[in-house]
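Quick start: what a row looks like.
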Amino acid sequence: MHITLDSTTATDVVTGIRFPEGNRWHDGRLWYSDMHTGEVFSLDPTTDEGPHLETTVDGQSSGLGWLQDGRLIVSAMEARTIVAVQADGSQSVFADLSPMESSLINDLVVDAATGRTYVGAFGYDLYGGEELRPGPLYVVEPDGSARLAADGLVFPNSASVLPGTRTLVVSETWGGRLTAFDIEADGSLTGRREWAALPQGVTPDGSTVDAEGAVWVCSVDTGEFLRVVEGGEVTDRIDAPGRCAIDCALGGPDGRTLYLATADSYDPATTAQTRAGRISAVRVTVPGP
């Protein structure tokens, strides 16, 4: 499949937001952050009910996940904490990474098999124009304690555990590649290797994995969504000309709807004026795991 994202190939599910991030399909609903407002929403795309505001964190919000006890967790980027949301909507700090990390934290993934959370950090002040430095990946235990899992990643971003494996695949945005690790019994990461070198110019941001172990990855700078298999072959491509391709999630009743998050800019000053972010839906062949 190679298509261009437009009104003939996709259906808009969410419009009028600033910067949609953290796309997840969970319990029959699409969940997402509006990163530049700190708001987290969910909706049932099969109805006309519209988005429901689930919680708001101070500053920017990014990755979403669910702990084994069912609590939603949200990456509060500027506070450098992971916030847990109770059933009544109240918040508590699940993990505080601020003593060990000075840059903004970013996307996260919960390893469903163990309840551990992996979360990356920028590694430098992107918005302040600081020179690029590699960033870390942390592992957070179910009790909220955190430690370094890997370092030297070139802007670690989204991550997925490949289905049926103990392999974690991480996007390195400014590195132009997907990097794999073996997840050990204690949650540590070993066997670091290049899982896929991406085409020239591709800057991998959000991602999602399908039932065949392929990764759909978004290229924020080039405005495209790529389905990539281990070794780097691109099997499918969705172009979003003039847009930042930010994140994606497989979901829907049969798992074959790919939800694609785009915006006109990743500059908060711009998105505050335009509110041109949206999430669109296209149909794909291979479902989520």
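That is the whole record. The helical segments are 268-274. The two ends are 20 Å apart (CA to CA).
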